[in-house]
């Protein structure tokens, strides 16, 4: 197994370029449908160089996932300084959306791997990521309940709403673009990021503050 799995900071410029290309192809075409030759052709190198750097396509995928997944974990330090429950919730949503947009290709790969269930170790990583984020969401909800601002609501269901909304927008770009008028100065991704953040804040606040 290549040493760069243990020393990701020692990657060369060429290795980083190969990783970026592989990540794009894995996200667009799927891991199984992408060959080492596809990656080599896009990177304008020979197959032997990829094998020299990474040993195999499987190791390349492992590097991409293991050293990228941390960016998707909710970090309570990003929002826990807010003492107002509603502001804490808003900051958490901003952090959540920001993390999802930090690497859209990686998120697509993780989703593909979790659904395919061919490589169990990655499905486990994705499951652990979701469990971690659900627990952070639970903490925000319980804080609001203690403050008398929120009613308790199942964090699993709320997280499903958040991730489902994100994936729906992301995977239906061509359809959505037909129904919205995006300002010329904004890309679709930027528009989605801004509007998704506002939408999720509204939905979560509405659910958590709703009184029967």
From TrEMBL:
Alphabetized GO MF terms: DNA-binding transcription factor activity; transcription cis-regulatory region binding
Record keyword Transcription present: yes
Gene3D superfamilies in alphabetical order: Tetracycline Repressor, domain 2
InterPro entries for the chain: DNA-bd_HTH_TetR-type_CS, Homeodomain-like_sf, HTH-type_TetR-like_transc_reg, HTH_TetR, Tet_transcr_reg_TetR-rel_C_sf
Residues in the DNA-binding region annotation: 35-54
Superkingdom assignment: Bacteria
A Pfam family hit: TetR_N
Domain named HTH tetR-type: residues: 12-72
Key words, A-Z: DNA-binding, Transcription, Transcription regulation
Protein name, per record: TetR family transcriptional regulator
Organism annotation: Sphingobacterium paludis
């Amino acid at each position: 197994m290549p040493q760069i799995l243990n020393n990701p900071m020692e990657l060369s410029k060429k290795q980083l370029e190969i990783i970026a290309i592989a990540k794009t192809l894995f996200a667009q075409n799927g891991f199984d449908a992408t060959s080492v030759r596809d990656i080599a052709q896009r990177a304008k190198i020979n197959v032997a160089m990829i094998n020299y750097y990474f040993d195999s396509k499987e190791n390349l995928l492992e590097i991409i996932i293991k050293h990228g997944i941390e960016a998707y974990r909710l970090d309570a330090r990003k929002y826990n300084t807010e003492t107002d429950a509603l502001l804490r919730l808003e900051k958490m949503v901003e952090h959540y959306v920001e993390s999802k947009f930090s690497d859209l290709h990686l998120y697509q790969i993780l989703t593909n791997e979790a659904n395919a269930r061919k490589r169990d170790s990655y499905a486990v990583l994705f499951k652990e990521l979701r469990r971690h984020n659900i627990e952070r969401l639970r903490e925000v909800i319980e804080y609001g309940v203690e403050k008398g601002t929120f009613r308790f609501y199942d964090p699993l269901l709320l997280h499903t709403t958040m991730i489902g909304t994100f994936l729906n927008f992301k995977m239906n770009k061509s359809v959505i673009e037909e129904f919205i008028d995006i300002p010329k100065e904004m890309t679709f991704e930027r528009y989605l990021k801004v509007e998704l953040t506002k939408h999720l804040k509204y939905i979560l606040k509405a659910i958590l503050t709703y009184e029967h």
